[in-house]
Amino acid sequence: MPRMTRALGSLTGSVKLRGKRRSPSSTGSSRCEAASSAFKGLPGGITEVEIDVIADENEARITRASGHFLGGDIGVTARMPLKGGQLGIAEASVTAGSSSSRHRKA
User: Fold this and answer.
1) Domain that holds residue 54
2) Number of domains in the chain
3) Strand 23-40 vs strand 3-20: parallel, antiparallel, or unpaired?
4) What pTM, to 2 d.p., does this model score?
């Protein structure tokens, strides 16, 4: 499993708490923008990373993640159930393609 060894960028977010003190509910979102990141175990770094995450008491979702890796574009969406403070089984969709194919003229 690759492990992040370096990252340069920013992380912003917000959390809203509602309900009673003994049983609060929460919702939140975060956005990560990284100019570059390096992972031990991968042949190259990932650049121009953007990740949007939304979560509530039932589920965490990556609504959009994109970046560049080894000359191509990558994209990810994912969801993971949250039940009683426990993490469920995550589902993800990953796409990859050549950067040059996006800029070809017909």
Assistant:
1) 3-17+25-100
2) 1
3) antiparallel
4) 0.77
